[in-house]
Amino acid sequence: MTRVVPGSGWLARWPVIRQLKGEDPRGSAARSARTDALRPRTERADKVARSVCPYCAVGCGQLVYVEDGRVTQIEGDPDSPISRGRLCPKGSASKQLVTHPGRQTRVLYRRPYGTEWEPLDLDTAMEMIADRVVRTRRETWEQTCEGRVVRRTMGIAGLGGATLDDEENYLMKKLYTALGAVQIENQARI
Whole-prediction pTM value? Predict the structure, then answer.
C-alpha cells in the first residue's frame, strides 16, 4: 500500500487542502476562469435612476439601472432613509413589471358572451369605459336611502392595486368620491 503525503502530487493541489493549510486565505482556489469573467449586471448601465418601489405604501427606495433605454436591473437604494437598501420579495422582483415577456402592452377586449380577446385601440376603450361609468352612475344613483340623504351610487366600486403609488391612489379616491361611490378599497398591502 502506498502512502500519500500531503504536499505532493494531486492532493497538494486539491483546494480544500490548500485552504486548510492556510495557503489560500481568500478562496482563490475555488475560483475558476468563468467566475472571474462574470461581471455585475449594473456595470454597463448608461444611467441609474432613483425611484420608489410601486408595490405598497412603505415607499422603499430603488436604484433602476438602464442600458440602451432598457431596464437591466433594479436594486434597493442604500441611501434611502426608509429601506436602507433593502427590498421585500415583491420589490426585488419589480423589474418584471417592465421587462416580463408576458406583460400586456395593448388593450384587449372580450365582448359579452365572447370566447376570444381582441385588440382595441386606447381611445375606443376609454370611450367605452366612460360611457359605462356615466350610464351606471345614472342608473344606480341614490339620493336618499331609508329617509336619509345619502347621494351615492352602489353600482360603482373602486379597488386600487398594489402597483399604484400614493399620489395615484389619492387621485383615484378623489375620482370615486366625486362619482358618488362609497365602496372604495385598496389592496396595497404586503
Answer: 0.59
Q: Which of 150, 153, 124 is nearest to 136 (CA)?
A: 153
The fold of 47-99 is Phosphorylase Kinase; domain 1 (3.30.200)
pLDDT tens digits along 120-130: 999 999 999 99
pLDDT in tens, 153-184: 999 998 877 667 678 888 888 999 999 999 98
Alpha-carbon span 6 to 9, nearest angstrom? 8
Residue-wise pLDDT tens digits, 75-93? 999 999 999 999 999 889 9
Q: Where are the domains of the chain?
A: 1-38, 47-99, 107-186
Grid cell listed for 122: 386606447
Q: What are the grid coordinates assigned to 21, written together?
A: 493549510
Q: Do residues 174 and 158 touch, judged by C-beta distance below 8 A? A: no
Question: Quick check: 184 and 158 in contact, CB under 8 A?
Answer: yes
